[in-house]
Amino acid sequence: MRLLQYADSALPIGSFSFSGGVESAAAAGLLTTEEELEGYLHQSLRTAALTDGVAALHAYRAALVGNMEAVVDADQRLYCTKLWAESRAMSVRVGGRLLSLARNTLNNSLLDKFSETIAKGGCRGTQAVVLALIFAIEEVDEQSLWAALMSGVANMVLGASLRTTRLSHLATQAILHRTAPLIEEQYATVLEMRLEDMQSFAPMMEIVAALHEQGRERLFMN
Do the beta carbons of residue 136 and residue 58 sit within 8 Å? Predict the structure, then answer.
């Protein structure tokens, strides 16, 4: 039930209002076929796995033993890997709403301490790290954390594509079904990665993001 709750795309934390670059990619005519959208999703998942995913796993393991210093380190390093302003804003904004929701629901001192650290400027409160804290507190296993985090990325991209392209819900669900093995493979790939190994290299997505930040297309709240 915890996995279903926190992985639900309807969780009221505002993630639906972001497109992960899909908005501008669609406006530029880069997402006109199912194959193009699937390729974009795979790149989005790879980038998330090597940044948010690595940070989330480290924060989760640190939270299990009450090591707040390591949690904060994971959060700060993750924020620094996000090259686009919109990506940073999304991570912190959604993370803040998720943290507020969790503090109201769980009444846990670890969440309170993390919130205090953010208020003092000690870290940013990224979505992936907040989710990791919640799963550690709730004693939900690490693989479920990974599933929730990566399904969130997939649902953001595919949901945005339904609002910005002519692809149907049948196409997006077929893509999601085919993508599940990739998410599992990515978990195995990053399982032993260090925080220092986090990396973000997706030139085309970064160009699309830059176009969005400077462009006039605004179909989403951001």
Answer: no
Q: Which CATH superfamily hosts domain 31-205?
A: Urease accessory protein UreF (1.10.4190.10)
How many Å apart are CA 176 and CA 6, to the nearest integer?
A: 18
Helices (H) and strands (E) in the chain, counts: 11, 0
Task: State the DSSP H helix or E strand holding residue 64, giving kind and residue range, or none if neither.
Answer: helix 54-64
Q: Where are the domains of the chain?
A: 31-205
Give the Cα separation of 83 and 37 in Å (integer): 22
Q: Write the pLDDT tens digit of every residue in 142-168.
A: 999 999 999 999 999 999 999 999 999
Maximum distance among all alpha carbons in the chain?
48
**pTM: predicted TM-score of the whole model, two decimal places:** 0.92
